[in-house]
Protein backbone atom coordinates (compact mmCIF):
# COMPACT_ATOMS: atom_id res chain seq x y z
CA UNK A 1 0.00 0.00 0.00
CA UNK A 2 1.47 3.36 -1.05
CA UNK A 3 1.99 5.95 1.67
CA UNK A 4 -0.03 9.14 0.97
CA UNK A 5 1.86 11.93 -0.71
CA UNK A 6 2.70 14.88 1.53
CA UNK A 7 1.15 18.28 0.89
CA UNK A 8 4.44 19.80 -0.24
CA UNK A 9 4.89 17.16 -2.96
CA UNK A 10 1.28 17.59 -4.11
CA UNK A 11 1.70 21.36 -4.25
CA UNK A 12 4.93 21.16 -6.28
CA UNK A 13 3.51 18.65 -8.78
CA UNK A 14 0.36 20.74 -9.34
CA UNK A 15 2.52 23.83 -9.82
CA UNK A 16 4.24 21.99 -12.69
CA UNK A 17 1.01 21.76 -14.73
CA UNK A 18 1.79 24.86 -16.89
CA UNK A 19 5.26 23.48 -17.67
CA UNK A 20 3.75 20.12 -18.63
CA UNK A 21 1.19 21.83 -20.85
CA UNK A 22 4.03 23.59 -22.64
CA UNK A 23 6.73 20.91 -22.63
CA UNK A 24 5.04 17.59 -21.77
CA UNK A 25 5.46 16.06 -25.22
CA UNK A 26 9.14 17.07 -25.35
CA UNK A 27 9.64 15.41 -21.96
CA UNK A 28 8.00 12.13 -22.96
CA UNK A 29 9.84 12.02 -26.29
CA UNK A 30 13.12 12.45 -24.43
CA UNK A 31 12.02 9.87 -21.86
CA UNK A 32 11.35 7.24 -24.53
CA UNK A 33 14.61 8.08 -26.27
CA UNK A 34 16.43 7.23 -23.04
CA UNK A 35 14.26 4.25 -22.17
CA UNK A 36 14.42 2.60 -25.58
CA UNK A 37 18.20 2.76 -25.73
CA UNK A 38 18.06 -0.35 -23.52
CA UNK A 39 17.24 -3.34 -25.80
CA UNK A 40 15.66 -5.33 -22.96
CA UNK A 41 13.22 -2.49 -22.26
CA UNK A 42 12.68 -1.60 -25.93
CA UNK A 43 11.35 -5.09 -26.64
CA UNK A 44 8.48 -4.49 -24.19
CA UNK A 45 6.97 -1.77 -26.36
CA UNK A 46 4.85 -1.62 -29.50
CA UNK A 47 7.35 0.25 -31.64
CA UNK A 48 4.72 1.32 -34.19
CA UNK A 49 3.35 3.63 -31.49
CA UNK A 50 6.77 5.24 -31.30
CA UNK A 51 7.00 5.77 -35.06
CA UNK A 52 3.60 7.44 -35.33
CA UNK A 53 4.19 9.45 -32.15
CA UNK A 54 1.17 7.99 -30.41
CA UNK A 55 2.90 6.61 -27.33
CA UNK A 56 4.80 9.79 -26.37
CA UNK A 57 1.61 11.81 -26.87
CA UNK A 58 -0.45 9.34 -24.83
CA UNK A 59 2.08 9.37 -22.01
CA UNK A 60 2.29 13.17 -22.06
CA UNK A 61 -1.50 13.32 -21.66
CA UNK A 62 -1.41 10.73 -18.89
CA UNK A 63 1.33 12.57 -16.98
CA UNK A 64 -0.59 15.83 -17.35
CA UNK A 65 -3.80 14.17 -16.14
CA UNK A 66 -1.89 12.76 -13.16
CA UNK A 67 -0.47 16.17 -12.24
CA UNK A 68 -3.86 17.85 -12.52
CA UNK A 69 -5.58 15.19 -10.42
CA UNK A 70 -2.83 14.29 -7.96
CA UNK A 71 -5.05 15.50 -5.10
CA UNK A 72 -8.06 13.65 -6.53
CA UNK A 73 -6.74 10.33 -7.84
CA UNK A 74 -10.22 8.81 -7.88
CA UNK A 75 -10.70 10.66 -11.18
CA UNK A 76 -7.92 8.53 -12.67
CA UNK A 77 -9.22 5.15 -11.51
CA UNK A 78 -10.32 3.93 -14.94
CA UNK A 79 -7.09 5.09 -16.58
CA UNK A 80 -4.96 3.38 -13.92
CA UNK A 81 -6.92 0.13 -14.41
CA UNK A 82 -6.40 0.21 -18.18
CA UNK A 83 -2.69 0.85 -17.81
CA UNK A 84 -2.40 -2.04 -15.32
CA UNK A 85 -4.24 -4.38 -17.70
CA UNK A 86 -1.97 -3.36 -20.59
CA UNK A 87 1.11 -3.90 -18.43
CA UNK A 88 -0.03 -7.39 -17.45
CA UNK A 89 -0.71 -8.27 -21.09
CA UNK A 90 2.85 -7.23 -21.94
CA UNK A 91 4.30 -8.96 -18.86
CA UNK A 92 5.63 -5.79 -17.25
CA UNK A 93 7.21 -6.63 -13.88
CA UNK A 94 8.29 -4.60 -10.81
CA UNK A 95 11.92 -4.83 -11.98
CA UNK A 96 11.06 -2.69 -15.01
CA UNK A 97 9.81 0.32 -13.04
CA UNK A 98 13.22 1.74 -11.96
CA UNK A 99 14.22 2.07 -15.63
CA UNK A 100 11.15 4.21 -16.28
CA UNK A 101 11.81 6.33 -13.18
CA UNK A 102 15.38 7.07 -14.30
CA UNK A 103 14.29 7.90 -17.84
CA UNK A 104 11.41 10.14 -16.74
CA UNK A 105 13.38 12.14 -14.18
CA UNK A 106 16.32 12.42 -16.56
CA UNK A 107 14.01 13.72 -19.28
CA UNK A 108 12.44 16.31 -16.97
CA UNK A 109 15.89 17.56 -16.03
CA UNK A 110 17.06 17.62 -19.65
CA UNK A 111 14.02 19.45 -21.08
CA UNK A 112 13.38 21.92 -18.27
CA UNK A 113 17.05 22.64 -17.60
CA UNK A 114 17.67 24.96 -14.64
CA UNK A 115 13.91 25.13 -13.99
CA UNK A 116 14.06 21.48 -12.88
CA UNK A 117 15.32 22.26 -9.39
CA UNK A 118 16.34 19.49 -6.97
CA UNK A 119 13.09 20.17 -5.10
CA UNK A 120 11.01 19.59 -8.27
CA UNK A 121 12.90 16.42 -9.19
CA UNK A 122 12.47 15.08 -5.65
CA UNK A 123 8.73 15.77 -5.77
CA UNK A 124 8.35 14.05 -9.13
CA UNK A 125 10.37 11.09 -7.88
CA UNK A 126 7.96 10.69 -4.97
CA UNK A 127 4.94 11.15 -7.25
CA UNK A 128 6.25 8.57 -9.73
CA UNK A 129 6.87 5.90 -7.12
CA UNK A 130 3.53 6.59 -5.44
CA UNK A 131 1.74 5.79 -8.71
CA UNK A 132 4.16 2.96 -9.55
CA UNK A 133 3.38 1.20 -6.29
CA UNK A 134 -0.36 1.47 -7.01
CA UNK A 135 0.19 -0.06 -10.46
CA UNK A 136 2.53 -2.78 -9.18
CA UNK A 137 0.00 -3.76 -6.53
CA UNK A 138 -2.88 -3.92 -8.99
CA UNK A 139 -0.79 -5.81 -11.54
CA UNK A 140 0.16 -8.36 -8.90
CA UNK A 141 -3.55 -8.94 -8.22
CA UNK A 142 -4.24 -9.48 -11.93
CA UNK A 143 -1.28 -11.87 -12.32
CA UNK A 144 -2.50 -13.87 -9.32
CA UNK A 145 -6.03 -14.01 -10.75
CA UNK A 146 -4.67 -15.27 -14.09
CA UNK A 147 -2.58 -17.95 -12.37
CA UNK A 148 -5.54 -19.13 -10.27
CA UNK A 149 -8.13 -19.16 -13.07
CA UNK A 150 -8.98 -22.53 -14.67
CA UNK A 151 -6.79 -22.73 -17.78
CA UNK A 152 -5.03 -19.51 -16.80
CA UNK A 153 -1.32 -18.74 -17.00
CA UNK A 154 1.28 -16.05 -16.37
CA UNK A 155 3.95 -15.12 -18.91
CA UNK A 156 4.05 -16.15 -22.55
CA UNK A 157 2.31 -19.37 -23.62
CA UNK A 158 2.77 -20.92 -27.09
CA UNK A 159 -0.37 -21.20 -29.23
CA UNK A 160 -0.77 -22.81 -32.65
CA UNK A 161 -2.69 -21.15 -35.47
CA UNK A 162 -5.36 -23.81 -36.00
CA UNK A 163 -7.26 -21.93 -38.69
CA UNK A 164 -6.64 -18.83 -40.77
CA UNK A 165 -9.88 -17.33 -42.10
CA UNK A 166 -10.23 -14.53 -44.66
CA UNK A 167 -13.11 -12.41 -43.34
CA UNK A 168 -12.89 -9.63 -45.95
CA UNK A 169 -10.41 -7.95 -48.29
CA UNK A 170 -8.75 -6.27 -45.29
CA UNK A 171 -9.51 -8.48 -42.24
CA UNK A 172 -8.20 -11.97 -41.51
CA UNK A 173 -9.00 -14.08 -38.45
CA UNK A 174 -6.60 -16.42 -36.67
CA UNK A 175 -7.98 -19.26 -34.54
CA UNK A 176 -5.51 -20.13 -31.79
CA UNK A 177 -5.18 -23.25 -29.62
CA UNK A 178 -2.51 -23.98 -26.98
CA UNK A 179 0.44 -26.13 -28.00
CA UNK A 180 0.19 -28.04 -24.70
CA UNK A 181 -3.48 -28.92 -25.54
CA UNK A 182 -4.50 -28.04 -21.97
CA UNK A 183 -7.62 -25.93 -21.23
CA UNK A 184 -7.54 -22.19 -21.77
CA UNK A 185 -8.75 -19.43 -19.49
CA UNK A 186 -12.26 -18.22 -20.28
CA UNK A 187 -12.02 -14.63 -21.45
CA UNK A 188 -14.59 -11.90 -20.93
CA UNK A 189 -16.17 -10.41 -24.02
CA UNK A 190 -14.26 -7.26 -24.93
CA UNK A 191 -10.85 -8.43 -23.70
CA UNK A 192 -7.72 -8.72 -25.83
CA UNK A 193 -4.66 -10.94 -26.19
CA UNK A 194 -1.10 -9.63 -26.18
CA UNK A 195 1.52 -11.19 -28.45
CA UNK A 196 5.31 -11.44 -28.42
CA UNK A 197 6.24 -11.90 -32.05
CA UNK A 198 9.52 -12.39 -33.86
CA UNK A 199 9.06 -10.77 -37.26
CA UNK A 200 11.87 -11.43 -39.77
CA UNK A 201 13.96 -8.30 -40.45
CA UNK A 202 12.03 -6.40 -37.77
CA UNK A 203 12.90 -8.38 -34.65
CA UNK A 204 10.82 -8.70 -31.51
CA UNK A 205 7.41 -7.00 -31.67
CA UNK A 206 4.55 -6.57 -29.16
CA UNK A 207 0.91 -6.23 -30.21
CA UNK A 208 -2.56 -6.38 -28.64
CA UNK A 209 -5.56 -7.74 -30.56
CA UNK A 210 -9.16 -7.94 -29.40
CA UNK A 211 -10.61 -11.44 -29.04
CA UNK A 212 -13.46 -11.98 -31.49
CA UNK A 213 -14.48 -15.50 -30.41
CA UNK A 214 -17.23 -16.05 -27.87
CA UNK A 215 -16.21 -16.71 -24.25
CA UNK A 216 -15.96 -20.37 -23.32
CA UNK A 217 -14.83 -21.67 -26.72
CA UNK A 218 -11.94 -24.16 -26.92
CA UNK A 219 -9.86 -21.56 -28.74
CA UNK A 220 -9.22 -17.83 -29.03
CA UNK A 221 -9.80 -15.96 -32.26
CA UNK A 222 -8.33 -12.61 -33.21
CA UNK A 223 -9.40 -10.68 -36.30
CA UNK A 224 -6.66 -8.43 -37.69
CA UNK A 225 -7.02 -5.56 -40.15
CA UNK A 226 -4.21 -5.20 -42.66
CA UNK A 227 -2.67 -1.79 -41.99
CA UNK A 228 -1.11 -0.10 -45.01
CA UNK A 229 2.27 0.33 -43.32
CA UNK A 230 1.73 -2.21 -40.55
CA UNK A 231 4.81 -4.40 -40.07
CA UNK A 232 2.99 -6.96 -37.93
CA UNK A 233 -0.42 -6.94 -39.60
CA UNK A 234 1.11 -7.47 -43.05
CA UNK A 235 3.30 -10.29 -41.70
CA UNK A 236 0.27 -11.96 -40.14
CA UNK A 237 -1.77 -11.64 -43.35
CA UNK A 238 0.95 -12.62 -45.81
CA UNK A 239 3.32 -14.94 -43.98
CA UNK A 240 1.78 -16.60 -40.94
CA UNK A 241 0.05 -19.86 -41.89
CA UNK A 242 -1.90 -22.57 -40.14
CA UNK A 243 0.39 -24.56 -37.87
CA UNK A 244 2.63 -21.63 -36.93
CA UNK A 245 3.26 -21.06 -33.22
CA UNK A 246 2.77 -17.64 -31.61
CA UNK A 247 3.60 -16.51 -28.05
CA UNK A 248 0.50 -15.26 -26.22
CA UNK A 249 -0.25 -13.83 -22.77
CA UNK A 250 -3.51 -14.42 -20.90
CA UNK A 251 -6.62 -12.36 -21.81
CA UNK A 252 -6.52 -8.83 -20.39
CA UNK A 253 -8.53 -5.63 -20.55
CA UNK A 254 -11.37 -3.98 -18.67
CA UNK A 255 -13.60 -3.14 -21.66
CA UNK A 256 -16.07 -5.85 -20.73
CA UNK A 257 -19.76 -4.99 -21.24
CA UNK A 258 -21.39 -6.80 -18.32
CA UNK A 259 -23.94 -9.49 -19.13
CA UNK A 260 -26.00 -8.51 -16.09
CA UNK A 261 -26.38 -4.88 -17.16
CA UNK A 262 -29.07 -3.03 -19.06
CA UNK A 263 -31.49 -5.04 -21.19
CA UNK A 264 -31.09 -2.39 -23.91
CA UNK A 265 -27.64 -2.45 -25.50
CA UNK A 266 -26.14 -0.44 -28.37
CA UNK A 267 -22.89 -1.66 -29.96
CA UNK A 268 -21.47 1.35 -31.82
CA UNK A 269 -18.34 0.70 -33.86
CA UNK A 270 -16.31 1.69 -36.89
CA UNK A 271 -13.86 -0.39 -38.92
CA UNK A 272 -12.12 -3.20 -37.09
CA UNK A 273 -13.56 -1.76 -33.86
CA UNK A 274 -16.31 -4.31 -34.43
CA UNK A 275 -14.12 -7.24 -33.31
CA UNK A 276 -14.70 -7.04 -29.53
CA UNK A 277 -18.43 -6.74 -30.22
CA UNK A 278 -18.48 -9.98 -32.20
CA UNK A 279 -17.31 -11.64 -28.98
CA UNK A 280 -19.85 -9.61 -27.00
CA UNK A 281 -22.70 -10.76 -29.25
CA UNK A 282 -21.67 -14.36 -28.73
CA UNK A 283 -21.67 -13.86 -24.96
CA UNK A 284 -25.05 -12.10 -24.99
CA UNK A 285 -26.70 -14.85 -27.02
CA UNK A 286 -25.10 -17.64 -25.02
CA UNK A 287 -26.36 -16.49 -21.62
CA UNK A 288 -30.00 -16.51 -22.72
CA UNK A 289 -30.97 -13.12 -21.27
CA UNK A 290 -33.56 -11.28 -23.33
CA UNK A 291 -32.08 -8.04 -24.66
CA UNK A 292 -32.79 -5.39 -27.24
CA UNK A 293 -29.53 -5.16 -29.17
CA UNK A 294 -28.80 -2.42 -31.72
CA UNK A 295 -25.62 -2.97 -33.74
CA UNK A 296 -24.29 0.11 -35.57
CA UNK A 297 -21.19 -0.31 -37.74
CA UNK A 298 -19.32 1.99 -40.09
CA UNK A 299 -17.08 0.52 -42.80
CA UNK A 300 -15.37 1.85 -45.92
CA UNK A 301 -16.78 -0.61 -48.50
CA UNK A 302 -18.68 -3.86 -48.66
CA UNK A 303 -15.40 -5.56 -49.55
CA UNK A 304 -13.92 -4.41 -46.21
CA UNK A 305 -16.92 -5.60 -44.19
CA UNK A 306 -16.28 -8.61 -41.94
CA UNK A 307 -18.69 -11.00 -40.18
CA UNK A 308 -21.49 -9.94 -42.53
CA UNK A 309 -23.13 -13.37 -42.64
CA UNK A 310 -23.04 -13.59 -38.84
CA UNK A 311 -24.75 -10.21 -38.36
CA UNK A 312 -27.42 -11.00 -40.97
CA UNK A 313 -28.07 -14.42 -39.42
CA UNK A 314 -28.65 -12.79 -36.04
CA UNK A 315 -30.92 -10.20 -37.62
CA UNK A 316 -32.87 -12.97 -39.33
CA UNK A 317 -33.48 -14.53 -35.91
CA UNK A 318 -34.60 -11.13 -34.53
CA UNK A 319 -31.66 -11.25 -32.12
CA UNK A 320 -30.64 -7.71 -33.12
CA UNK A 321 -31.33 -4.78 -35.39
CA UNK A 322 -28.47 -3.22 -37.34
CA UNK A 323 -27.50 -0.04 -39.16
CA UNK A 324 -24.52 -0.42 -41.49
CA UNK A 325 -22.78 2.62 -43.05
CA UNK A 326 -20.56 2.56 -46.17
CA UNK A 327 -18.35 5.65 -46.36
CA UNK A 328 -16.43 4.88 -49.57
CA UNK A 329 -18.88 2.91 -51.73
CA UNK A 330 -22.54 2.66 -52.70
CA UNK A 331 -24.91 0.56 -50.63
CA UNK A 332 -24.73 -3.15 -51.60
CA UNK A 333 -27.80 -4.16 -53.59
CA UNK A 334 -27.59 -7.91 -53.00
CA UNK A 335 -28.53 -7.84 -49.31
CA UNK A 336 -31.97 -7.61 -47.80
CA UNK A 337 -33.24 -7.97 -44.26
CA UNK A 338 -35.97 -6.02 -42.51
CA UNK A 339 -33.82 -5.74 -39.38
CA UNK A 340 -30.74 -4.41 -41.22
CA UNK A 341 -30.71 -0.84 -42.55
CA UNK A 342 -27.97 0.24 -44.96
CA UNK A 343 -26.68 3.81 -45.38
CA UNK A 344 -24.19 5.71 -47.52
CA UNK A 345 -21.65 7.87 -45.70
CA UNK A 346 -20.24 7.84 -42.18
CA UNK A 347 -21.89 7.45 -38.80
CA UNK A 348 -22.24 11.04 -37.65
CA UNK A 349 -23.37 12.69 -34.44
CA UNK A 350 -26.22 14.26 -36.44
CA UNK A 351 -27.48 10.82 -37.49
CA UNK A 352 -27.00 9.35 -34.02
CA UNK A 353 -28.77 12.04 -31.98
CA UNK A 354 -32.39 11.28 -33.02
CA UNK A 355 -31.72 7.56 -32.48
CA UNK A 356 -30.41 7.90 -28.92
CA UNK A 357 -32.27 6.10 -26.16
CA UNK A 358 -30.96 7.55 -22.89
CA UNK A 359 -31.99 4.40 -21.01
CA UNK A 360 -29.70 2.13 -23.08
CA UNK A 361 -26.09 1.09 -22.44
CA UNK A 362 -23.71 2.29 -25.18
CA UNK A 363 -20.50 0.41 -26.00
CA UNK A 364 -18.17 2.19 -28.43
CA UNK A 365 -15.03 1.09 -30.25
CA UNK A 366 -13.25 2.52 -33.27
CA UNK A 367 -10.86 5.28 -34.36
CA UNK A 368 -10.26 7.98 -31.76
CA UNK A 369 -12.00 10.81 -33.64
CA UNK A 370 -15.08 8.65 -34.23
CA UNK A 371 -15.25 7.70 -30.57
CA UNK A 372 -14.89 11.27 -29.34
CA UNK A 373 -17.71 12.38 -31.64
CA UNK A 374 -19.97 9.57 -30.43
CA UNK A 375 -19.17 10.09 -26.74
CA UNK A 376 -19.81 13.84 -27.08
CA UNK A 377 -23.15 13.25 -28.84
CA UNK A 378 -24.30 10.76 -26.21
CA UNK A 379 -23.23 12.99 -23.33
CA UNK A 380 -24.95 16.05 -24.81
CA UNK A 381 -28.13 13.99 -25.30
CA UNK A 382 -28.17 13.20 -21.58
CA UNK A 383 -26.97 9.59 -21.54
CA UNK A 384 -25.51 9.03 -18.03
CA UNK A 385 -21.74 8.57 -17.93
CA UNK A 386 -22.11 5.13 -16.31
CA UNK A 387 -23.98 3.94 -19.42
CA UNK A 388 -21.21 4.93 -21.86
CA UNK A 389 -18.42 2.36 -22.21
CA UNK A 390 -15.54 2.67 -24.65
CA UNK A 391 -12.10 1.37 -25.60
CA UNK A 392 -9.40 3.36 -27.33
CA UNK A 393 -6.92 1.51 -29.53
CA UNK A 394 -3.99 3.64 -28.34
CA UNK A 395 -1.84 3.03 -25.29
CA UNK A 396 -3.46 5.62 -23.06
CA UNK A 397 -5.29 7.97 -25.38
CA UNK A 398 -8.32 8.28 -23.11
CA UNK A 399 -6.23 10.40 -20.74
CA UNK A 400 -7.78 13.32 -22.62
CA UNK A 401 -11.14 12.37 -21.11
CA UNK A 402 -9.92 12.59 -17.51
CA UNK A 403 -8.68 16.11 -17.36
CA UNK A 404 -5.68 16.27 -19.67
Automatic annotation (TrEMBL):
Domain (FAD-binding FR-type): residue spans on this chain: 154-258
Substrates-to-products reaction catalysed: 2 nitric oxide + NADPH + 2 O2 = 2 nitrate + NADP(+) + H(+); 2 nitric oxide + NADH + 2 O2 = 2 nitrate + NAD(+) + H(+)
Catalytic EC class: oxidoreductase
InterPro entries the UniProt entry points to: Cbr1-like_FAD-bd_dom, FAD-bd_FR_type, FNR_nucleotide-bd, Globin, Globin-like_sf, Globin/Proto, OxRdtase_FAD/NAD-bd, Riboflavin_synthase-like_b-brl
GO BP terms in the entry: cellular response to nitrosative stress; nitric oxide catabolic process; response to toxic substance
UniProt EC number: 1.14.12.17
Top-level division of the source organism's lineage: Bacteria
Cofactor(s) needed for function: heme b; FAD
Domain Globin: start-end pairs: 4-140
Keywords: Detoxification, FAD, Flavoprotein, Heme, Iron, Metal-binding, NAD, NADP, Oxidoreductase, Oxygen transport, Transport
CDD domains, per database record: flavohem_like_fad_nad_binding
Pfam families: FAD_binding_6, Globin, NAD_binding_1
Entry's Gene Ontology molecular function annotations: FAD binding; heme binding; metal ion binding; nitric oxide dioxygenase NAD(P)H activity; oxygen binding; oxygen carrier activity
Family: In the C-terminal section; belongs to the flavoprotein pyridine nucleotide cytochrome reductase family. Belongs to the globin family. Two-domain flavohemoproteins subfamily.
PANTHER family xrefs: FLAVOHEMOPROTEIN (PTHR43396:SF3)
Role of this protein: Is involved in NO detoxification in an aerobic process, termed nitric oxide dioxygenase (NOD) reaction that utilizes O(2) and NAD(P)H to convert NO to nitrate, which protects the bacterium from various noxious nitrogen compounds. Therefore, plays a central role in the inducible response to nitrosative stress.
NCBIfam families attached to this UniProt entry: PRK13289.1
Protein name: Flavohemoprotein
Lineage: Bacteria, Pseudomonadati, Pseudomonadota, Alphaproteobacteria, Acetobacterales
Amino acid sequence: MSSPLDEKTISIVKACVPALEAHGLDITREMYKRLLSNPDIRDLFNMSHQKDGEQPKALALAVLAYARNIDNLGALGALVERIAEKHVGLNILPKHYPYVADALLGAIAHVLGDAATPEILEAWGKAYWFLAEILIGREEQIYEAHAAAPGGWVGWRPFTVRRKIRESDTITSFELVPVDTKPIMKHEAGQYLSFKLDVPEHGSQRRNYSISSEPGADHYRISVRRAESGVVSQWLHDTVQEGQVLEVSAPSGDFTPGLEKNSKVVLLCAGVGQTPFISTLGAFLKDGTKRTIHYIHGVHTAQDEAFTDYIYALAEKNALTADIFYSHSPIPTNRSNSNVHLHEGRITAEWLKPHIDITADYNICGPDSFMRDMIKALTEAGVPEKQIHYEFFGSAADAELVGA
